[in-house]
Amino acid sequence: MTQTTTVDDVHTREAKYVLQTYRRQPVTFVRGQGVRLYDAEGREYLDLLSGIGVASLGHAHPGLARAISEQAGTLIHTSNLFYHPFQGQLAERLANLSGLPRAFFCNSGTEAVEACLKFARRYWYTRGEPRAEFIALGESFHGRTFGALSVTSDEHYRAPFEPLLPGVKFVSSSQPKELLAAVTRSTAAIIAEPIQGEGGVRPLTPAFAAAIMEASAKTGALVIADEVQSGLGRTGYPFYSGALGLKPHLISIGKALGGGVAVGAALVSQDVADTISYGDHGTTYGGNLLACRAALCFLDELVGGGLLARIGRVGRHLEQQLKAMAARRPVIKEVRGAGLIWGLELTRDAAPVVPEALARGVIVNRTAETVVRLLPPLIITEPDIDQALERLEAALVAVGG
Ligand SMILES: Cc1ncc(COP(=O)(O)O)c(C=O)c1O
What we know:
Blueprint: H1 7-17, E1 29-33, E2 36-39, E3 44-47, H2 50-53, H3 62-72, H4 87-98, E4 102-106, H5 109-126, E5 133-137, H6 146-150, H7 155-158, E6 168-171, H8 176-182, E7 187-192, E8 195-196, E9 202-203, H9 206-219, E10 222-226, H10 240-244, E11 250-253, E12 264-268, H11 270-273, H12 289-304, H13 307-328, E13 332-338, E14 341-346, H14 353-359, E15 362-363, E16 365-367, E17 371-374, H15 382-398
Helix pairs in contact: 3-12, 4-12, 8-9, 13-15, 14-15
Bound molecules: pyridoxal-5'-phosphate.
The site of pyridoxal-5'-phosphate (PLP) has 14 residues, from α5.
């Protein structure tokens, strides 16, 4: 805060000038350090949300800050009309991590999904067998642009904007047979989040993943794994689709990739890549120098820096502690997740937990009405987890749990 700007000014100005699409919590953050955030009054919060899975290296990470600052002082953006040194390097690193050899860069998760949907249509068009249909899952969330919204199941998000893309069918993620019946030779692609994040932190079962692969093998339908929330180490695996035995033809990523700098990507198989031509898709900002430097820095930490291996260990600690808390607190009905993405399904609306947690210095959010979601920075340690969960448990007690 500057001397002339108070917290009240911030709230008043936003209320007057910012389009009111977000219901914000009444906190103004001004600074961060590792897994901690500080508000305008200097109060400290343990961040178990990382800006909804984005601040993967925590806040004010020195390596990321250095990379971004150095790049900003050298060259930020030139457009995709020209080469620069980093996009190919980033694509190569993502290919090594995912097994999908080609990347298209964009700026957000919804754009990554949008690209995957378009590339799936293009694949069938190029093969002279146009297929328009997509199969998506109940409880899915893929983003807010029209294509991504069309494969998002929640009526609340969809209804005001209909008509959406035609030819989308939703099936229940607990019914492999329903999926097998729905996928036909008119299906361009099946799209699924390996762990449904916004839908309440619901990992797909290996049996459902096997049904996706069976349906794809029988009909040729492509498989799109939306790993925007579950990918890039979040679960202790590079991608959770791999852990489930899924072999996607396309993967959408975003969130953690830039550690806070906006960058997303669609990763595609060579078969799909072979059907794409110049001009099929594009974006002005996608994969600029600044975004690529940030993403390369994140991947340096994740792979070279040993973060991925650490997430498995720290994630097991978080799982044990959450399950122990659930045993003590009857308000927790179920604990779901993997690695460093967890949902606590409550027996009641989870909304009041969020302000109670904030008041005790811990940041979580509610999703799917009854679920408290945890998506901490990937650098979180066991002692940070213990301290944060103590505060979260006190918040659950405060709401009567
Ligand atoms: C699985 C999944 N896909 C896509 C998106 C959309 O990403 P963005 O908000 O960056 O557009 C999200 C965002 O929460 C997501 O969780």
